[in-house]
Amino acid sequence: MSVVYLDSCVVIDVLDTKAPHYEWAVSALEQYEELSISPIAFSEICAPLRTVEEALSLLKDLNLTLRAPCHRTLFLASKKHLEYRRRGGKKSGVLSDFFIGAQAAVEKGRLITRNKGRFSTYFPTLDILCP
User: Tens digit of pLDDT for each residue in 109-127?
Assistant: First the structure.
């Protein structure tokens, strides 16, 4: 079975019962026994937490494995981000998406996200699960 990664938005939705995608996010997590998260997504979900222990407890509670990226992942992320910029991409906070997408793509995994657009454009072979 391939590695299944979570985008940070899915974890954020699971933590907010009032989020528009809460039900979908909870259902998505329940479909898989083993889920992984990249260090980049992990750092994004840590922002509202008070301590590293709280963050690690969250990983455990959600049964998430933190997986370090390999050199191929980092290289691919930089190339796809450069392609995005050359195509006229102007958003400044998108580099994290390229790291997250590249890690799932290099490992020939799946990505659970509610933000399909950029991932499907720059990682067309990536299996994306979204609402």
Answer: 999 999 998 899 999 999 9
